[in-house]
Design brief:
Dihydrodipicolinate Reductase, domain 2; six-stranded parallel sheet; Alpha-Beta Plaits; single chain; about 425 residues; 14 helices; alpha/beta; 3 domains
Length: about 425
């Protein structure tokens, strides 16, 4: 077959755009040797084309006019790396309507607007590559939709936000508080100037939405993902977790049980010897259980210029192969339906173990009253730590419970928090990794 050059246009020249361009330019000859055809970076569009990205860009490659890329009939694949919803959505839909394939790292766009985007792609018989939208260099999208295609997946959970994991790692290993760890993350470039999406769990919820849709064939359900961040975690909670033999991690959890699917993101206590507990710093790790393959854990860098750029290039090469072979017009690899019969489980019906930290006056009868309220809500205590007495001062009373229903736990805590001998709201965390 005569070699064909597949032309690429990048829209968005930030961190990931720079990494993608760097790989395409530096590895062009190697990629061509592996693929048997050339992949040519023809154009890069960004509002700022003056800033030095530390990369030698050939003359004439940069433009501030994204429409020139959309309207170029020679460009086969458009790489959308703007981020956010708007104008990324409008640019993506415009490209698809023009019959151009899309590669994107935009998890927010897919999680919130994916239904319309994939519908438009199917209509125009083009592809959307999105490996880079979840977990950076970890090829989790390919694992779910290709490597494990012969499996019925029942559980996916893990650490999929490096910023939050770095903060919790620093709090655990250095004993600093949340604010100090966040400041360090910003100084090292691990956290954005506005880290809200990372520390409040929104970024993880976007990524979980995408993985769950692939794994279970359900519509994108971002609005139904229970989402809770790490801002409430204190060094005291990390200390008590350690005493119980646990670590605290921000987990994204998707589970199928019968016709119900759990979708939740929240700080979680895991046994310290669990493999996911050992994932530190900005690294990500994802556990997947398939009925045929069994358990698997996928580990790597979850963000950054080169790891995410590598995932983008992977999608570019996959789609380029179809462009060259002519298969691109007959392949539509995203199969999500409204007819699975599955429903998203309400958070109040979730069953899990719990860590509870009360601030209670150390007086006779307090423990029995708290235990009584928990018992009346079908919650049994598994283990407990009570610190030394301080006359007339509230002291930590910490418990681990057996598995209980969320609705029962919330109801019990409402009653306990109204007790005159309890100071402030009870701190509670969900526990995974152990039954009973």
């Amino acid at each position: 077959m005569k070699k064909k050059a597949v032309n690429i246009g990048i829209i968005g020249f930030g961190t990931v755009g720079t990494g993608t361009a760097r790989i395409l330019l530096k590895r062009r000859r190697e990629i061509e040797e592996k693929c048997g055809f050339a992949i040519v970076l023809k154009r890069i569009a960004d509002l700022d084309i003056k800033r030095d990205r530390g990369i030698n860009i050939p003359k004439g490659l940069l433009t501030s006019d994204s429409q020139s890329i959309l309207n170029d009939p020679e460009i086969d694949i458009i790489v959308e790396l703007i981020g956010g919803i708007h104008p990324a959505k409008e640019i993506t839909l415009s490209a698809l309507k023009k019959g151009k394939n899309i590669v994107t790292a935009n998890k927010a766009l897919l999680a919130e607007e994916g239904r319309q985007i994939f519908k438009e792609a199917a209509k125009n018989r083009v592809e959307v590559g999105f490996e880079a939208s979840v977990a950076g260099s970890i090829p989790i999208i390919k694992v779910i939709r290709e490597s494990l295609v012969g499996n019925r997946l029942s559980s996916i959970f893990g650490i999929i936000n490096g910023t939050a994991n770095y903060i919790l790692t620093e709090m655990t290993e250095s004993g600093v508080n949340f604010e100090t760890a966040l400041k360090e993350a910003k100084e090292l470039g691990y956290a954005e100037a506005d880290p809200t999406f990372d520390i409040e769990g929104v970024d993880s919820a976007h990524k979980l939405t995408i993985m769950a849709s692939l794994a279970f064939g359900i519509p994108f359900s971002f609005k139904k993902v229970y989402t809770e961040g790490i801002t409430r975690i204190t060094p005291l909670d990390i200390q008590f977790a350690s005493e119980f033999g646990y670590k605290i991690k921000l987990l994204a959890i998707a589970k199928q049980d019968g016709m119900d699917v759990e979708l939740r993101v929240h700080p979680t206590m895991l046994p310290a010897d669990d493999l996911i507990s050992g994932v530190s710093g900005v690294f990500n790790a994802i556990f997947v259980h398939g009925d045929a393959a069994g358990d698997g854990i996928y580990y790597g860098r979850g963000a950054g210029e080169m790891p995410t750029g590598s995932a983008v290039v992977s999608d570019i090469v996959d789609i380029a192969k179809n462009v060259v072979s002519g298969a691109g017009k007959s392949i539509q690899r995203m199969s999500i339906t409204d007819n699975t019969g599955l429903k998203i489980k309400k958070m109040e019906d979730i069953r899990t173990g719990y860590y509870l930290r009360f601030s209670a006056l150390d007086k006779p009868g307090v423990l029995s009253k708290i235990s009584g309220i928990l018992g009346s809500h079908n919650i049994s205590i598994k283990s407990m730590i009570q610190k030394g007495r301080e006359k007339e001062k509230a002291v930590p009373l910490v418990m681990m419970t057996h598995v209980a229903r969320e609705k029962d736990m919330i109801g019990a805590l409402k009653k306990i928090d109204r007790m005159s001998v309890v100071s402030g709201k009870t701190m509670y965390l969900r526990v995974e990794g152990e039954e009973g």
